[in-house]
Amino acid sequence: MGADEEGQSPARKREREEESAAADEGGAAAAAEKRPRAGDESEGASLLGLANYADEEEEERGAPRGHANGRPREEEEEEDDEGEEEDERRAPERRPRQVELRRDCPYLDTVNRQVLDFDFEKFCSISLSNLNVYACLVCGKYYQGRGLKSHAYTHSLEAGHHVFINLQTEKVYCLPDGYEINDPSLEDIRHVLNPRFAREQVKILDKNKQWSRALDGSNYLPGMVGLNNIKETDFVNVTIQSLMRITPLRNFFLIPENYQHSKSPLVHRFGELTRKIWHARNFKGQVSPHEFLQAVMKASEKKFQIGVQSDPVEFMSWLLNTLHAKLRSSKKKNRSIIYDCFQGELEVVKEIHRKHLVDDEQNGEAGSQVETTSDGMVTQTSRVPFLMLGLDLPPPPLFKDAMEKNIIPQVPLFNILKKFDGETVTEVVRPSIARMRYRVIRLPKYMILHMRRFTKNNFFVEKNPTLVNFPVKNLELKDYIPLPKPKESEKLRSKYDLIANIVHDGKPGEGCYRVFVQRKSEEAWYEMQDLHVTETLPQMVALSEAYMQIYEQHE
């Protein structure tokens, strides 16, 4: 080993002399091709100004820094190297990563905030990879990596755009020089990329009456921003806008530490969207729910997708149940912020003929109290949790009036709420013919009602145009449906205020959805349809064809 070492040392010296001569004569290309070895500390220092680092992907995967095998440098130099090519390949791994940090960057004035949009998926626009993506702060496009052969590095040379931000670490770099920029003027960009809320800010969010100004000079209210309709995704937009009015749910998702235990992309995308909607320092007065929609498509296995109109009631039901499943701490406890807000309980009394009873027991409806009457009918009583209540509308009249126009009937909300008074019988056909009676035995903090406007038969979908008359404030349930007696220490809370009202306009299967929502700080009502947000009167809310409503319980 010692003989080999002696035999090799002159060759190494000769190489060093040749390289230093090449550097002196201005042979920069030769020096770049023949990278300095791990032992050449003097030359490594001279090349510090250039981007002397390994590929970003290796670092992300946890590639070892400094010595490749963790041994001292003297021992490494004793080893025989099997040729210069292998040595050059290993050199970037061994050399410690050093990135210069500078405050003064001459290219900061080229940053164009007007083109920055962080709502879209964090994918490289060339390689479509989501590893190590940087956004060009001059043109707004996404590129991968910042090594010598990366797309971001190439873009910086081709287009002359020099300022890039890492979309994960939020560090800003100047390429091709490779130094990191530390400048406080870039903080607003970091806040738009990843909005943050302190717990104190969250508590006073509903008291804020201040408007925010976007870069184009338009004003917007945080929490009242329009959502982009990517293609027939208005059913998602109205659902999101409604859920943003649920204060405990919104406060939970504004602070990522609350759900960091969840590995579900859907949960994290919903949290990001919530923070963007309520952020007061956005560059523009609307938000694009692109990443959330991608997560929805993946989690629902394309049951809900971009470009296909769906029902907001179905979507709300799927979203609440999926978020609950991903957020609950354990199967035994079965609790989450979703159930805390929306879950109530019904007592269901089912009268069924004895011959149908066997089928129902096979369907898993055993375990409830069963009573048999003399006429061969069997009564089953069970307790069922619910997240939303479905209300049946009376059928519209078949005949036209004297003016040859269809009469649009009106019905008070209290009439259709009688379904849940424990006495009114509802007849069901599926899975078997039965008579059902429902009674609410536990009220939720937030009650979701939906009017069954659409009925499907073998040929087409019909829409019931009946108008429902409902109070916007002080819906008192105890006057219309029997409620359970509260415990001695508690008082009965049966008063509700409307906070969101989803409306369907147009023909069944077509048409579009819009939503009326209440802004807590001013108690004003706003009509929201995709990007359009306009203030409206409470009286206008009551005149609409309500499809789904959310009521908040009085404290």
From TrEMBL:
It holds the Pfam family UCH. Residues 225-554 form the USP domain. GO terms for molecular function: cysteine-type deubiquitinase activity; zinc ion binding. One of its GO terms (biological process) is protein deubiquitination. Keywords: Metal-binding, mRNA processing, mRNA splicing, Nucleus, Spliceosome, Zinc, Zinc-finger. It is found in: Nucleus. Residues 103-200 form the UBP-type domain. Its main location: nucleus. InterPro entries: Papain-like_cys_pep_sf, Peptidase_C19_UCH, Ub_carboxyl-term_hydrolase, USP, USP39, Znf_RING/FYVE/PHD, Znf_UBP. Residues 75-87 have a biased composition (Acidic residues). Residues 88-98 have a biased composition (Basic and acidic residues). GO terms for cellular component: spliceosomal complex. PROSITE patterns: USP_3, ZF_UBP. Transmembrane segments: none annotated. Residues 1-98 are annotated as: Disordered. Belongs to the peptidase C19 family. This is USP domain-containing protein. It comes from Triticum aestivum (Wheat).
